[in-house]
Amino acid sequence: MKKLYVVVPCYNEEAVLYETAKRLKSKMTTLIDAGKISKKSHVVFVNDGSKDQTWEIIEKLHSDDSLFSGINLSRNRGHQNALLAGLMTVKDVCDVSISMDADLQDDINAMDEMIEQYLSGCDIVYGVRSKRATDTWFKRMTAEGFYKFMDILGANTVYNHADYRLMSQRALEGLAEFKEVNLFLRGIVPMIGYRTGIVYYERSERFAGESKYPFKKMLAFAFEGITSLSTKPIRMITALGIAVFSISILMLIWSVVGFFRGTTTPGWASLMVSVWGIGGLLILSVGIVGEYIGKIYLETKARPRFIVKEFLNDDKDE
Questions:
Q1: Do residues 153 and 226 lie in contact, with contact meaning Cβ atoms separated by under 8 Å?
Q2: Which of 81, 144, 285, 314 falls 20 to 30 Å from 218 in CA-CA distance?
Q3: In this structure, what is the dihedral angle of CA atoms 62, 66, 67, 68, given to the nearest 10 degrees?
Q4: What are the structural domain ranges in the chain?
């Protein structure tokens, strides 16, 4: 039987952690009793530098039940780095992993079908939302627009998939080959290849606590994904520059013809619109190019994406 490690990134999740542990234990027990996974399987909570009692709760869960393991990062590194830290820490001690958030919005029961598809030969199984009935109109519009926009820009993502996924050990080894500092796992994982599957599920409301992704943070996350996976924004700047230059040539011709025909009307309006328009495009273009240069700067430094301070796991030496 295969050893499953469920990796759960946590940041200030004290309000929900006990309930999450309770539900995961019930599911893991069911899978173990059914002979689907090994008795040495674990749930690994990754503490991403929480400021509340999250780590203390993880320590207590581990001391009370060996099913639960814990990874304590040296400081807050963000959701994607915390998730990667968990996956990379367990890749050598597990046969298969499932990653999910701690807020209980992901349907734990979808794990059953994920395991079935894994046993049928899939190395990666994506948990995909079947609908967004629990979202507000604005959240649904922006989220779905994000996935469509990513596809337009050439980023290979799975529509309506977040970070609820199963990965085999060899898929995790493939993920370890990607060394970039600017992480966007939703776009990186599809690059690994291997046979994949999809499990559809309905996402629930957050059980307790506050969302860690308000609108401002979601925008930053989307921009991170776009600039980490696609060079199309730079190509769009080039196309825009060509278009603006072409228009300026046409305007020059029009102005010369008007001058000789005596129909020119001097005025500030057209001049100011042109100055502000071109100036805005230049600043925007420099900003986008600067974002890519900044990412190159971070990549060349090759700083560690995470540092594990402590790993609580009874089977880590096996």
A1: yes
A2: 285
A3: 20
A4: 4-214+304-312, 232-301
User: How many Cα atoms are found within 13 Å in the side-chain-facing hemisphere of 54?
Assistant: 24
Report in angstroms the alpha-carbon separations of 199 from 98, 171, 177, 207, 233: 13, 18, 26, 22, 32
Task: Please give the Cα distance from 279 to 84 (Å, whole number).
Answer: 41
- For the entire predicted model, the pTM comes to 0.71
CA nearest neighbour of 55 among 40, 41, 75: 75
Residue 129 — very low, low, confident or very high, per pLDDT cuts 50/70/90? confident
DSSP per residue over 193-215, as a string?
-S-EEEEEEPPPPP-SS--S--H
4-214+304-312 adopts what CATH topology?
Spore Coat Polysaccharide Biosynthesis Protein SpsA; Chain A (3.90.550)
Q: In the predicted model, is pLDDT for residue 267 greater than 60? A: no
Per residue in 77-99, pLDDT (tens digit) is 888 899 999 999 999 999 999 99
Instruction: Tell me the pLDDT tens digit for each residue of 174-210.
Output: 999 988 877 788 888 988 989 999 999 887 665 555 5
